[in-house]
Amino acid sequence: MNKGILLAAVLLFLSCSSDDQNGYEPTPMPLEIPQIFSENIIAPIIPNDNPQTVEGVGLGKKLFFDTILSADGSQSCASCHSPQSAFTDNFATSAGVNGIAGTRNSMPLFNLAWNYNERFTWDGKELSLERQAEEPVQNPLEMHSNWNDVIERLQTHQEYPQLFDLAFNTSTITKELTTKAIAQFERTLISANSKFDRYSLGIETLTAQELNGLDIFLREDKGDCFHCHGNPNNPLWTNNDFHNNGLDATFTDLGLGAVTGDPNDNGKFRTPSLRNLVYTAPYMHDGRFTTLDQVINHYSEGLQNSPTIDPLMKQINQGGVQLTDQEKADLKAFLLTLSDPSFVESNN
Amino acid sequence: MKRLILLAISFILFTCESENTNGGTLRNITVDFEFIHTWDGTVIDNTNLTTTTVTNENGETMSMSRLRYLLSRFQLLNSNGDIYGFNGYKFTDLSDITSYNFSTNNFIIPSGTYTLKFIWGFNEADNITGAYPDLNSASWNWPDMLGGGYHFLQLDGMYNIDTTPSPYNFHNGTARVSTNPNVFEQNFVEIEFTEDMVLSGNATIKIEMNIAELFKNPNAWDLNIYDTPLMPNYDAQKMMQQNVESVFSIDEIFQ
């Protein structure tokens, strides 16, 4: 009953205010920065023109899970970025509304505000989170809408105009405001409570095997994973930079090279975070590896040479760093400590 | 009002002049540092780092795909023995032109005759594992099993690119002398320039980093022997420390 009165009061308030200037101030909602981040890395990036607010995040979350964005009402962002899979799906590449699969693996979504160079997607073509949110809506291989139709659907919806009014002080819905809201929600997806995080904070211990795996991860003469994938003092577990990690001798997908037009960038893709690997299979930009064992085997024996292979890929002529079976098992054990069940559970 | 007072004090600081002990006139000046990077005279920057082919002293043709380095504790020493130290450190990524120069944030010193020194990497007091969030965010850390702290240099690329291209990872930081037990040796370099610089007005000191010197003097570097991994290689780490000595030179002073 109380809720009903409150809703009526809110609606009455809204109906009394003008369309574009309701005088209502959205409630600031700064990101809750985990201790493991605040103690180790610099502050997240929040655009000045899109501050986090309770209303903006709430609207963004509703939009993220709403199939209204797709051409036929069959898909939402969450269709390919599911909370139970750390906001990816478990397909090599995802099928859009027309049932046709794209060419890239759906990237998991977390800790996005800490991508300091703000190049998103596997090939870095999207230069902000807001701009990234535009693309899937209109991509023929994804939601296959056009933004004019989406805006019309949102504008005539019984709830959205009011929610935009609360979030942005205007009930006139635009593409820009829609993607701003989605970006606000995406920035709240923070994963920082893995077993390794708790180990770093001194409240959990690692097994001998997991510690040995960390040693292999950090040793330049063993795994040498840390130059691209972070370290205990960079708990993002990615440098968010672009590398050719030796997947192919020739490229069917140029990656960053197709974006920059620079042949030196051919075959380079953004380093994914190693957090939440338990939930994010299959792996690589095209989802070619279904298991972590296959990924480790790739770096150990499976490297393919090419003109742009990153020099951090060791022993290319031998196919990789030649880990023993025990070292592979230890490395895998460590990698699994970077997964964060609470992140998946709290967003389900 | 407070701002006005502050402004007035700043103005006085900037404009006051006094007689120095030698009878000359002292002014308050600021100093900044501009860096240029070369390979034996050819400018290397974000536009050509990854496309330039060079030949090192030992004769190997090389490419460079990534070059980052760290300098700290910039100090100017004048003829009276006064030392003016500048806070902060300079972390340079050659792919990012905005990281090339070192600003002292208008730190004021008296005009005079100075020599310059700075530290390659961090000295032992500064080289603290995890202490600098910006460097952690850049994944610049040096693993604890090698002594911890931070990289001083990361230069990656391919060598023998005209015959059988192979990767090199020319990374410099704390040297590990031995394991079981781990014994580490500091590996920073105090770069001290002997040239007197007469700084009479606000100055920008232009410093050249000749990357080729890393492979030249006193150790003609043989990448066929020392390519990767070099971080745990004590001899390689100490040879890098020696070669760094001749990498930097004062190119020009603008004032």
Highlighted features:
heterodimer; A: 348 residues; mainly alpha; Cytochrome Bc1 Complex, Chain D, domain 2; 2 domains; two-stranded antiparallel sheet; 16 helices; 2 strands; 38% helix; 1% strand; B: 255 residues; mainly beta; eight-stranded antiparallel beta sheet; six-stranded mixed beta sheet; 18 strands; globular; disordered N terminus
Which stretches of chain B of 5+ consecutive residues score pLDDT under 50? 1-23
Low-pLDDT sequence parts of chain A: 6-19
CATH architecture verdict of the largest domain in chain A: Orthogonal Bundle
- What is the radius of gyration of chain B computed over CA atoms, rounded to a whole number of angstroms? 20 Å
Number of helices of chain A: 16
Strand content of chain B is: 35-45%
* Biggest interface and residues each: A-B, 30 and 30 residues
Mean pLDDT of chain A comes to 94
Instruction: Give the N-to-C terminal Cα separation of chain B.
Output: 33 Å
CATH topology of the largest domain in chain A: Cytochrome Bc1 Complex, Chain D, domain 2
Please outline the helices and strands.
The complex is a heterodimer of chains A (348) and B (255).
Chain A: H1 2-16, H2 35-38, H3 54-64, H4 77-80, H5 129-138, H6 147-155, H7 160-168, H8 175-187, H9 195-200, H10 208-218, H11 226-229, E1 242-243, H12 256-260, E2 269-270, H13 277-280, H14 292-301, H15 325-336, H16 341-346
Helix pairs in contact in A: 3-7, 3-8, 5-8, 10-15, 14-15
Chain B: H1 2-15, E1 17-19, E2 25-39, E3 42-43, E4 53-55, E5 61-63, E6 66-78, E7 83-85, E8 89-93, E9 108-110, E10 112-120, H2 133-137, E11 153-159, E12 166-172, E13 175-178, E14 183-185, E15 189-192, E16 197-199, E17 203-210, H3 234-244, E18 248-254
Parallel strand pairs in B: 2-17
Antiparallel strand pairs in B: 1-2, 2-3, 2-9, 4-5, 6-7, 6-8, 6-10, 6-11, 10-15, 10-16, 11-12, 13-14, 17-18
